[in-house]
C-alpha cells in the first residue's frame, strides 16, 4: 500500500506528512532477517535520516543505523534505498511520499552486516590504509620554510579530495562483488588524491602497488561508483587517471594496461578499435593460438570482420589529429583525463544554463548575468 501523501498541520514541526518505509532488519547473531514496515508522521522537510530518527525515537528503539553530521559531510549514514546506495541525510522524503511509493531500506552492499543498517567498515578502512593515505614529501629533514603550491597545481586532485569516505561507491561495485579483495573505488580514488598531489614524492611506488593483483586493472568500468557517489568524486575517473599515469610511467605489465595501449594504437592507425587483433597484440602468439577455436566460432557467427583489406574509418584523420594534439600539448597520463573532465564540465554547465543566455554569453563573454 502506498503511504498517505496528504500534508497535515503538525504541532512541533509545522506541516507534516505520513511516511511509510520498509526496512530490512537483521541480527547476524541470531541469523534473523525480516522486512518490516513502519509508518510515522514526519515534517515535510524530513530526509530519510530524520524518518529513521523518528522511528527509533517513537516506534522501535532497537533499530540500528549510523549517523553523525546530518549534513552530507561525515559519511556515516550510507545505506541503500530501493537497492541503490544513498546518504540517508541527502534523500528528501517529500517527493517519494507524494509519489505514493514505499521505499525499501537496506544496508550497503559488499560489506558485512553487523545489525540492521549498520555494516562493518573494517574491510573498507583496510583498503584505504593500504593506499598509505598521507603525503610522502620525501625530504629527510624538515625544510626551514613551507613549500607553496598554486591552486592550479592542486586542481587535478580537487574532485578526489571531496571524498567523505561514505562507502556508497563500494556498496555498488560490481568488481568487488566478484572479488572482495579488489581495492575498490573509494580506496583507489584516495590513491589518486596522493598520486596527483604535487607535494608527494612516492608516486612510482604508489603506482607499482596499485598495479598489483586486485588493483586498478580489475575494475570492470561499470561506472556504478560514479553514478552513486553523493559528492561527485567520480571514483571510476580516478581509476582511469591512475591507469593513464601508470602507462605514462612505463608501468604497463598488466594485461589491462596492454589492452589500453593497443586501443590507443588501434584508434590512431585505423580510427576504430580492432578487437580481433587484441589477443595476438597484447597476449602474444601462443595465447592467440590457444584461442583459435574460440576465434573460429566468433568468425562463424559473423563476429569477426575480414582482416583484408583493413577497414579504415572515414574520418581517421580526426582521430590522428586528436592524438597529436594530446601529445604536443603534453597532456599525457592523468593530465589528458583532467582536460577531458574540464571540457565535459563546460558542456554540462552550458546545458544547464538558459540556452538563450548561454548563446549570448558565448557571443559576448563580457556580458554579465543578472
Ligand atoms: S567502475 Fe570499477 S570501481 Fe567503479 S563500481 Fe564499477 S567495477 Fe567498481
Ligand atoms: S568516492 Fe564518493 S561514494 Fe565513494 S566513499 Fe568517497 S564520497 Fe563516498
Ligand atoms: S549523517 Fe553525516 S553524511 Fe549523513
* pLDDT < 50 runs, ≥5 residues: 1-7, 358-370
Number of helices: 17
Anisotropy-based shape: globular
Order of helices and strands: EEEHEEHEEEHHHHHHHHHHHHHHH
Bound molecules: iron/sulfur cluster, FE2/S2 (inorganic) cluster
β-strand percent reads: 5-15%
The percent range for helix content is 40-55%
Mean pLDDT: 88
Distance between the termini: 47 Å
- The total beta strand count reads 8
Which structural category do the helix and sheet elements fall into?
alpha+beta
Main sheet?
6 strands, mixed
Radius of gyration: 25 Å
Can you tell me about this structure?
- The chain is of the alpha+beta class and 370 residues long.
- 42% of the residues lie in helices and 12% in strands.
- The protein contains 17 helices and eight strands.
- It has helices at 48-58, 94-99, 122-130, 151-154, 168-171, 174-178, 185-195, 203-210, 224-228, 235-248, 255-270, 278-283, 285-290, 292-300, 316-328, 334-352, 355-363, and strands at 8-9, 15-27, 32-43, 78-81, 84-87, 104-106, 113-115, 118-119.
- It is globular.
- It starts with 7 loop residues before the first strand and ends in a 7-residue tail after the last helix.
- Bound molecules: iron/sulfur cluster (SF4) (2 copies) and FE2/S2 (inorganic) cluster.
- One iron/sulfur cluster (SF4) binds next to helix 5 and helix 7.
